[in-house]
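To fix ideas, we give here one paired sequence and structure record:
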Amino acid sequence: MAALATRPFVGLRQPENLFIVLQVRWAGAWNDLNESQREPVPGAHSPASVIETLEEEIVLGMLHPRERLVEDDLMARFGLKRHVVRNVLAELEQMGLVERKRNIGALVKAYTVEEVEHLYEVRELLETHCVRQIPLPVDEARLQALLTIQYAHDEAVAQGDLRQVFRLNVRFHRELFGLADNPVLVEAISNHAQRAHSIRSSTIAMPAQLERSRQEHWQLIETLRGGDVETLVELCRAHLLPSRDAYIQAQRLRAGPASSVAT
């Protein structure tokens, strides 16, 4: 696969300057998010907005796999009635983000190594098949929506706006796979990506990984312009690997030496 040019941030001339700026901004953003998670959220909250907030906190690693979501805590934080909180947790369970255990309650979904491998096998099959269906090269008119999203994603990464980084990343991939003109396939891809939120939390808030992901987005865009389908497929496949591998490594380290021998 031919090397592809990276896309720098405007106004940051040296790569080391980029990471210094990102680390400082993201440290502040992370502290702000953790503070906001502990405080009651003022104002009225719809179930949809609470689901969106908790989804973001799971994918950003503020809520960890196996962490309990206590109904009383959520009622106090968002000012919701118990039956509404239960409906929120039921929806998060349906989305694959939460699991319920008898006598324990709701917990952020945790995966075994085998479950992660199976989920990512399916994600790879769906996503690589989808990009093979995109007519290449893609003309500039069709790329405009994707470019607009990616410029906004660049800005969110540079500013350390973690919630926006997540939301714009979701939009980028929906727009990318939408170029195949198969909405059923796009929905299947989105559903499986959503189920991986707690897995992705191991890398999504790391400045170096976010910069890598940002650069890979630009490589995907350039390949859509260039028309090399095999390069596009390989970029898509490689884009999945960091979160999968980091989660599996963390699980094996947590399990100790016996796990390494067994695998």
Observations:
- The first strand starts at residue 68 and ends at 69.
- The longest helix spans residues 229-255.
- The chain has a mean pLDDT of 85.
- The chain is about 70% helix and 5% strand.
